[in-house]
Each structure stands twice: as structure tokens, then as C-alpha cells.
């Protein structure tokens, strides 16, 4: 009795499902169950198809081949088969059904056509035109290709200079300390006694010493100049003082002789 009830329930459920999808009417390929009441089948509308026998009221939409994306119609859509697309020359499929295509790097897109870049031109993006290689006035370092531009010498030189400066700025005591620690660790691991590694003095220390000596020399030169000027002024003052004293010594005998003559005039009777 239980089995019989299960069978009745299954048949009822199947009938309900069929009735909700157009009833029990089976339509052939290229047709669908009529939407209106009364049952029956009708041909799929334009732009749609039905590849199998069905109970459905819907047909499948035909695939659209996008001509502006490099695709074209290879086989047109029918009531029973879908439309087949194919990529034009130079394009490659972007979708599995080739309804949309792309112009790969190394090829250039121009006026809706995709063609390989000529010599001296490149393209490293999809669906883009080819671009001309740059002109190197300082010479070519790396030759360009259809997917990459030329690299000039001066660009690589600037890169090397920048890399050298960064290396110089970062290769000081922190790096030496790390290197010393690494050396000690390796020595311990291999079982040999660790050796003390003396850190190499940075080249900046020599620069600082040179600058200090230069400043010291400049200061010493200034002091020596000031001392020389002072000696020169002192010497001039001594010369002037000596000249004044010499002039005074020459005048005193004359005055004394004048005094003696006047005394003679005042005392004429004295022998």
C-alpha cells in the first residue's frame, strides 16, 4: 500500500511539473510550446533557436558575433542551430565561441583591422595601435622588438648611477655589523671557533678627518695672518718713536750752546 501511494505521488508531481512548463506537449526542434492556452507548438521567433525536443515555452537566443571586436559570422543562426562566429585575420578569440576577439601584443589595431607590427614598431597592449621605437642619440643598449621598445644607453647609465648611489648609502656600518654577525654564526655552525672580525672603517671617516684638517689649516692661516699684521704695525710704531727721539737729541746741544753765549753776554767782566 505504501509503495502504491509513492507511485501515485510521483506521477502527480511529474504531471504538475510538466503542466507548469507548458503541459505534457512535446515540441520538436526549432519549436516551443505555445504560451497561449490550448497547448500545441509554435516556431521559435526570429533571433532564437531550439536544438532539442522540449517541453519548454522558451527558445534560446542566437549568439551575437561582434564585428567591432574582430568577429564575423561564419554560419548564420537557424531555428534549430545557433550562429557560429569566427575571428578575422590577425585577431584571436577572447571568448570560447569567438563572438568576441582581441588584437594581441605584437599586433596593431588600426581602422578595425589587426596586423603584425612592422619593423621599428611595437605594441605591448591588446587592442592598441603599434608605436614607433624611440630614437636613441647616445646609442642603443637593448634592441626593441614587436612587443617592447628600445632601451637607450643613457637610460641604463642613469639607472646604474642611481643603483650605485643607493648601494653606497646603505653599505656602511649596519651592513658590516650584519656581515660580521653572519660570519660568526657560520663559524659557530661549522664547529670552528668564532673569529673576531674587525669592522672596516667607512670611507666617510677619512672624509671627516680630511675636512677637519682643512678647517684647522684655514684657521691656522688666519691666525698667522693676524699675527703678521700685528708685527708689521708694531714695527712701524717703533720706527716712528725712534725717529722722534733722534730729532730731540739733535736739538739739545744747540739750546745748551745758546745758553752759554747768553751767559757770556750777561757777565762780560768775568774772565
Automatic annotation (TrEMBL):
Intrachain S-S bonds: 44-59
TNFR-Cys repeat ranges per the UniProt record: 43-85
Biased composition (Low complexity): 178-200
Pfam families assigned: TNFR_c6
PROSITE patterns: TNFR_NGFR_2
Keywords tagged on the record: Disulfide bond, Membrane, Transmembrane, Transmembrane helix
GO molecular function: signaling receptor activity
Transmembrane segments: 208-231
The TNFR-Cys domain, residue ranges: 43-85
Region (Disordered): 178-203, 246-271
UniProt-listed GO biological process terms: regulation of cell population proliferation
Superkingdom in the source lineage: Eukaryota
Classification via PANTHER family: SI:CH73-361P23.3 (PTHR47139:SF3), TUMOR NECROSIS FACTOR RECEPTOR SUPERFAMILY MEMBER 9 (PTHR47139)
Protein name, per record: TNFR-Cys domain-containing protein
Species of the source: Channa striata
Amino acid at each position: 500500500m505504501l509503495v502504491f501511494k509513492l507511485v501515485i505521488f510521483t506521477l502527480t508531481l511529474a504531471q504538475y511539473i510538466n503542466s507548469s512548463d507548458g503541459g505534457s506537449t512535446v515540441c520538436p526542434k526549432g519549436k516551443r510550446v505555445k504560451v497561449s492556452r490550448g497547448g500545441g507548438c509554435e516556431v521559435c521567433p526570429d533571433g532564437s533557436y531550439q536544438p532539442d525536443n522540449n517541453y519548454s515555452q522558451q527558445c534560446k537566443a542566437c549568439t551575437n558575433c561582434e564585428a567591432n571586436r574582430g568577429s564575423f559570422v561564419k554560419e548564420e543562426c537557424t531555428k534549430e542551430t545557433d550562429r557560429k562566429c569566427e575571428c578575422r585575420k590577425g585577431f584571436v578569440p577572447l571568448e570560447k565561441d569567438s563572438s568576441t576577439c582581441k588584437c594581441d601584443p605584437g599586433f596593431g589595431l588600426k581602422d578595425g583591422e589587426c596586423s603584425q607590427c612592422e619593423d621599428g614598431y611595437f605594441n605591448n597592449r591588446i587592442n592598441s595601435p603599434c608605436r614607433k621605437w624611440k630614437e636613441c642619440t647616445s646609442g642603443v643598449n637593448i634592441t626593441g622588438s614587436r612587443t617592447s621598445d628600445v632601451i637607450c644607453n643613457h637610460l641604463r647609465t642613469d639607472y646604474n648611477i642611481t643603483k650605485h648611489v643607493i648601494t653606497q648609502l646603505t653599505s656602511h656600518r649596519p651592513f658590516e655589523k650584519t656581515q660580521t654577525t653572519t660570519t660568526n654564526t657560520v663559524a659557530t655552525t661549522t664547529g670552528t671557533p668564532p673569529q673576531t672580525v674587525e669592522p672596516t672603517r667607512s670611507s666617510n671617516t677619512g672624509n671627516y678627518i680630511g675636512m677637519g684638517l682643512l678647517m684647522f689649516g684655514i684657521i691656522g692661516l688666519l691666525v698667522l695672518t693676524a699675527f703678521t699684521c700685528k708685527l708689521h704695525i708694531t714695527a712701524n710704531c717703533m720706527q716712528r718713536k725712534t725717529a722722534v727721539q733722534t730729532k730731540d737729541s739733535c736739538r739739545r746741544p744747540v739750546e745748551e750752546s745758546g745758553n752759554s753765549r747768553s751767559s757770556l753776554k750777561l757777565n762780560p767782566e768775568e774772565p
